Amino acid sequence: GDISRNCTEEGWSEPFPHYYDACGFDENETESDNQDYYYLSVKALYTVGYSTSLVSLTTAMVILCRFRKLHCTRNFIHMNLFVSFILRAISVFIKDGVLYAEQDGNHCFISTVECKAVMVFFHYCVMSNYFWLFIEGLYLFTLLVETFFPERRYFYWYTIIGWGTPTICVTVWAVLRLHFDDTGCWDMNDNTALWWVIKGPVVGSIMINFVLFIGIIVILVQKLQSPDIGGNESSIYFSCVQKCYCKPKRANQHSCKMSELSTITLRLARSTLLLIPLFGIHYTVFAFSPENVSKRERLVFELGLGSFQGFVVAVLYCFLNGEVR
Q1: Can you give the residue ranges of the G-protein coupled receptors family 2 profile domain (predicted)?
Q2: How far apart are the C-alpha atoms of 117 and 85, rounded to whole Å?
Q3: Lowest-confidence segment of 74-83, 183-192, 249-258, 303-312 by average pLDDT
């Protein structure tokens, strides 16, 4: 809210309304012990989750960067996803350090350039994370649909989508916020119209990812249930197998058995098929609801369970990767 003071003959008057009233905070109002315990539990949960994710993702990045035989377009996409999760975890710790540095402090008073910059960085990292999850689903879908797949050209566009789109959206949001809603530390999103500049593209990527998930399942079922694979379909299978591995394959591998090709294709699809519902469905539950609705449940899903996303990604895309083992 707005706070003003009048210049009188006796000097400046007291601020009106009071800081606590303007910020919607009652100095005499105390939360129940159960609510305090709940929020402390959620914070402890996501602190453990992001710490675990940060360690596992850093280890996975070292492994993928260390061995040259693992350098290929598929793993480059995985590495970008790892980086987005690492940045997300770091941004959460920085945000907590800035907003809640003092245990008894009221962050409603904070309104500095540094604090706002931290929130811009935080939203960028979160948005980039969702877009690289979308890229993973898009990559697998393209892999199964396209017969000839120019990976380098596609990877160029993937990079633009994954890092460029969040840059544009967050920049637009920051400019609009600066001109139309420059209050507090930008950690509250009371202006719904401005918040949808960030939330809209994220929700859109999640919805498209879910559609890709359904499409991938349909394609895999059709291919794997086919009793007789013709020449064209066989070449499609072999093309997919070539793209699943970083090392080039020889021509005599066209003689691979159908069961072997199916196993390889399913192994490639397994990680992304698990990630799309795991990291998308939980967000769509609250995607179109107001920010103040189901706040407790939203905290558990987005902060508690969501903090372990990076750990699951590292396990699926690195530690359980047959090439790494």
Answers
A1: 42-321
A2: 19
A3: 249-258
State the Cα–Cα distance between residues 305 and 170, nearest whole angstrom.
25
pLDDT of residue 321: 73
On the 0-12 / 13-18 / 19+ scale of CB atoms within 10 A, 182 is exposed
pLDDT at residue 281 greater than cutoff 70: no
Q: Give me the residue spans of the domains in the chain.
A: 1-30, 35-319
SS (H, E, C) 185-205: CCCCCCCHHHHHHHHHHHHHH
Measured in whole angstroms, how far is the alpha carbon of residue 134 from the centre of its chain?
Answer: 9
How far apart, in whole angstroms, are the C-alpha atoms of residue 25 and residue 4?
Answer: 17
Give CATH superfamily name and number for 35-319.
Rhodopsin 7-helix transmembrane proteins (1.20.1070.10)
Which residues lie below 8 Å from residue 69, measured CB to CB, with a gap of 6+? Answer: 246, 247, 323
| Single pTM value for the model | 0.75
> In whole angstroms, what is the distance from residue 265 CA to residue 171 CA?
39
Instruction: At 131, give phi and psi (nearest 5°).
Output: -70, -30
